[in-house]
Amino acid sequence: MQIKTSSTMPTSPPPAENNGAAAAYFDFRAAERVPESHVWAGMHEKDTAPVVAAGDEHDDDEDHDDDEPGGDMRDGHAVPVESLSRAEEQAARLFALPAPDKARAARRPGGGSTGYGVPPYLLRYPKRMWAEGYTFPPPAIRDEFRRVWPDAGDDYHRFCSAMEEYDAAMRALGERLLAMFFKALGLAGDDAAGGKTERRIRDTLTSTIHLNMFPRCPDPDRAVGLVAHTDSGFFTFILQSPVPGLQLLRRRPDRWVTVPGTPGALIVVVGDLFHVLTNGRFHSVFHRAVVNRENDRISMPYFLGPPADMKVTPLVAAGSPESKAVYQAVTWPEYMAIRDKLFGTNISALTMIRVAKEEDEES
Ligand SMILES: O=C(O)CCC(=O)C(=O)O
Ligand SMILES: [Fe+2]
């Protein structure tokens, strides 16, 4: 199945002052109601046109047939299910640890996003998400989680091995998907101009894992698991569990589509830098996570992107209708700096680096 999406910017709330003290997680387990600090009043109403079951979504005549989908469910992904379920099981064990154990791996000042706690960019919102989480680059797994399990016993080793196995599986999938995408774009093969670029991108792909826990919520309509955003890198894999919660934004009319809880299915979310790389032929997709009253939900998004020093330059296929690059070449940090400046506005960072009109641009 395919879910077509594109890159409208939904409304976002005004920025808040960064408040370090707010970085600590609230005790979700004990909550009998959603406290003011976590209430996103009006957010769902304003952003959510009726939520449509994804199964009703396949026919899509009003969309652009020649665009590639921004979000795509692939359940024939050939990733060993044991690798996925072992990682999920270990993530669940991690989140079930007592709060002080989890907090030992807290994000360090100046340490970027790595660690446990509210990521710096989420602290800029006036309200907190109904979620807790870890962020780490796979090479840091053993160091990071030694903080949670200082004795480096069996629990530590089981966790690290499961995450390393997950990393290897997702990375291999990322490399395969990259090859498929290049083929779909007519850029594959040794002779094509894209062949060299493909190899360079594949050989330098960087990755980050998020482990998100969205606890069940006494008033899910007034809380948000993760606010609407696009991922900024190339693409992200989000494994689906039986508990739904991921929503993708679909256009015309704008509405949030709930991805069904299909265990073992992987959603591929296209990020902004892949939008740039493909010169707008693949659209980055707005998505968010909602919470529910009955069940906790764990997600383990796996992000793939370029190294920090790589200029991402739009690939223009010979003989394709887009004969000119639509976007300026940017590195990931340059792009993030633009996104950062635009926080709290409804201006998309992609618009800021656009140098020519996209063929399919909405008028
Ligand atoms: O948990 C999900 O389904 C979405 C997570 C996500 O979009 C993210 O961490 O960037
Ligand atoms: Fe995301």
TrEMBL record:
Pfam families: 2OG-FeII_Oxy (PF03171). GO terms for molecular function: metal ion binding; oxidoreductase activity. Residues 1-23, 41-77 are annotated as: Disordered. The keyword Thylakoid does not apply. Residues 1-10 have a biased composition (Low complexity). The keyword Nucleotide-binding does not apply. It comes from the Eukaryota. Gene3D superfamilies: B-lactam Antibiotic, Isopenicillin N Synthase, Chain (2.60.120.330). Residues 204-306 form the Fe2OG dioxygenase domain. InterPro entries: IPNS-like_FE2OG_OXY, IPNS-like_sf, Iron_ascorbate_oxido_reductase, Oxoglu/Fe-dep_dioxygenase_dom. Residues 57-70 have a biased composition (Acidic residues). Keywords: Iron, Metal-binding, Oxidoreductase. PANTHER family: 2-OXOGLUTARATE (2OG) AND FE(II)-DEPENDENT OXYGENASE SUPERFAMILY PROTEIN-RELATED. Belongs to the iron/ascorbate-dependent oxidoreductase family. This is Fe2OG dioxygenase domain-containing protein. It comes from Oryza punctata (Red rice).
